[in-house]
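Lab notebook, page 48
Experiment: co-folding of the full assembly
Goal: obtain a model of how the components sit together before planning crosslinking
Operator: M.T.
Materials (sequences as entered):
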Amino acid sequence: MTAVATSGEIKAGKASRGLAAPSWLAAWLQATPLLLILGFFFILPILTIIVVSFWDYDFAGLYPDFLTMNYADTLGSWVTWKTYLNTLKFTAITWALTLFIGFWVAYFLAFHIRTTTMQMVLFLVCTVPFLTSNIIRMISWIPVLGRNGLVNSTLIEVGIIPQPIEWLLYSDFAVVLAMVHLNTLFMVTPIFNTLMRIDRSLIEAARDCGASGWQVLWNVILPLAKPGMAIGSIFVVTLVMADFSTVQVMSGGQSASVALMMKNQMSLLQYPAAAANAVVLLVVVLLMVAAILRVVDIRKEL
Amino acid sequence: MTTETKTATPEKGISRRTLLKTGAAAVGAIAGSGAITGFPTIWAQNPITLRQFGTGVSNINAIAEKCKEDLGITLEMTATDSDAAAQRAVTQPDSYDIADIEYWIAKKVFPSGVMQPMDVSKIKYYDKIVPLFIDGKLKPESVVAQGTAPHTVGFVEAQDSKSFAKAPTQWMTLIPTIYNADTLGIRPDLVGREITTWADIMDPAFKGKTAILNIPSIGIMDAAMIMEAMGNIKYADKGNMTTDEIDQTIDFLIKAKQDGQFRAFWKSFDESVNLMASGEVVIQSMWSPAVAAVRSKGIACKYQPLKEGYRAWGGGLGLAAHLQGAQLDAAYEYINWYLSGWVGAYLNRQGYYSAAMETAKAHMSEDEWGFWVEGKPAKGDILSPEGKVMEKAGAVRDGGSFEERMGKVACWNSVMDEDRYMVRRWNEFIAA
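Observation: model returned without errors.
Model output:
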């Protein structure tokens, strides 16, 4: 018994000394789970996509190779450029609108609602639509905007317009409307969060110094809300750039987006072409995120 | 065209099978017991499984269940979309025993040597197969349609040959399963005039109220029918356009799109149903089950026959090259059973056509045969194989009889030599 206990103690002592010796080991161990998850579910798939984007293909299969053909095809076609331009247009409009709406919703919640309970209740109300899937939220616009939909039939019955408005559905308008509807909350949440952290005494100080309401907003609140706006922008920009279902459904297939182009290629089993497209899109989106982070240092201002 | 893949193995689905039987009995056509006799029962003692994958009948579990019941052969069915089917047929030839593919896929697949032709002398009902699949003519005076017509890829020169024969030989590549003739669907209450030609979809009166389907290989054919009907071009072969013909067709589509002629381009079955049912579109490319779905909502919808004829499609069953011995015998057994009537009646009742019409007739009631095949007004309610009312008494099938519809096929779904170029230009059309 004693012998066992002693040897156990010795072992424990050795072990603790062994653990203490390389201090980097604990850090590595702590980082391992994240490293594994990112490695398997993020880095590995992206590497695969990059590798496949250089392969050759026909209808029957993929052939390992090193060809720049897929990139040449993608970048050399005016369809790609036009599609990117179209996607960027949707992104810019959606970003501007969600930022504007999102900021004012967050501002109202943060500064005009007095009790914290009410703030949380109203914030939860904002998230209610997210209890249904975004496909459903998108498709539910169709009976509203259609030729014989709610809006048109109401306007005609009231006598405001003689004929249904055609551009309400299956148009760029419909696409932007649905995208704003789907993505505004991603703006509201981070902006609301940063606005709530603003020290109220700063606002009082500004007022004491004689600043008007607009001056407070422009010189105090907006600069302090920048990190939230940047985070929201990253969400919205990446989501809209990668969207295919909203564009397909709301434009009635009349408009193209980059992701839709990829989906078309995949359904025709042209995986390497789609992979090349994905790499190009990834680079573009990363550049956009980098640009946002360059304008606003999220870590510094949090 | 989803990429969804589902696998179905027939089980002892007593309730479902009973339901099917009741459904069939209700229309007074269950002569099944008569047809079962005459098939050997060896498979019950020596269980055989055939793996079937593909696009058409592989979606129908009832066939696998009935096959198990009649032959004791277990069918493992996997349904895929057509592009995936073509790829799998070539790249994974050991993963299936029976390929259920469309004829244009066979044109791609057979030359790669992964399948074996069938000996027609072992096919009991070969004589009963509709001549459309033998020499391309429904009746001796019919004109052979353009595109990948089934008879052009229906036979090979010899058992080990990979090249298609110009005339029928002893070696058949595919046994036809489902086929049909597609045309434009219209809302008779909203178009306000007679629709007689494919060109009517470009009528300025329907500006912003038309749609075509956004599946390049089929959409281009519909576009070709429209172009030719308008007198813009005369194709040498709509199913195999030259790059110049593709350019002209796509340029025409782009112009029509920019002029606002189209309301939408649909990709999936339900999209086409919604466009039509909501009145967004009054004339569009459509598939026959979609027309039935619009009608089932109580909305008038017609599968309008047009003077230029139909765009037809068809699929068939082929044997994998690796099949031999007892499995090969079982496959022949299955195909003979397939042509013996029960399946044919089932498919006819779905609004498709079966390969051996004569044998199917014995399994259908006179009224069903009259409605689906002869184009006569229904005397009673017409039920789907699941027992749902498809048409009320007095209804007549759009386009009329089998001979009227399949006799007026202008072109078959096909794969072009310039396929890649066509898809690239089609993407330009959608992006334009």
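Interpretation: The two ends of chain A are 58 Å apart (CA to CA).
Next step: discuss with group before ordering constructs.
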